[in-house]
Recover the amino acids of this structure.
């Protein structure tokens, strides 16, 4: 049963990912991305990663998709639709994708997991819980990385506000 659920999720994730990339309607592409994010959250649930599933839904399906929709509505898609797309490069893209897939399969083929290093063993994670172990690690061992990511996100938000803000000069009408 687990194999059937995984196969279903894998097929849906691949198909919706292709629909996101190849769809000519930007709003439909964002909606396919929403379907993809929900199926990815279900995949996280099957791996007993409840925290990641929740973050997937809240952050990606919530915040990121709303941001994408705002960007889609802010840009003028009528002019972009008239520009010749990159359909000429499909053979090159397909060749590169096949080569990268073969390289990934060759790299993963002989993979063996190394010994567990540190105090985050599967037993501890199962006993304490994913969120508690992740929170402890983030706010003790990786606090500098966590704060740096927060500052980078703040700078990105401020940059977006500055770029979308209209500058008004004296004499301009509102």
């Amino acid at each position: 049963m687990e194999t059937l659920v995984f196969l279903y999720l894998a097929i849906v994730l691949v198909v919706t990912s292709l629909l996101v990339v190849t769809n000519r309607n930007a709003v439909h592409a964002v909606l396919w991305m929403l379907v993809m994010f929900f199926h990815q959250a279900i995949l996280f649930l099957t791996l007993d990663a409840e925290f990641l599933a929740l973050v997937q839904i809240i952050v990606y399906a919530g915040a990121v998709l709303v941001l994408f929709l705002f960007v889609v509505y802010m840009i003028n898609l009528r002019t972009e639709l008239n520009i010749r797309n990159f359909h000429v490069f499909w053979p090159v893209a397909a060749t590169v994708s096949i080569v990268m897939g073969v390289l990934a399969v060759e790299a993963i083929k002989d993979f063996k997991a190394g010994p567990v290093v540190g105090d985050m063993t599967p037993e501890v994670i199962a006993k304490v819980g994913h969120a508690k172990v992740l929170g402890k690690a983030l706010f003790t061992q990786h606090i500098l990385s966590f704060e740096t990511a927060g500052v980078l996100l703040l700078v990105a938000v401020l940059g977006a506000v500055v770029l979308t803000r209209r500058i008004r000069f004296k004499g301009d009408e509102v």
Q: What stands out?
A: The chain has a mean pLDDT of 83.
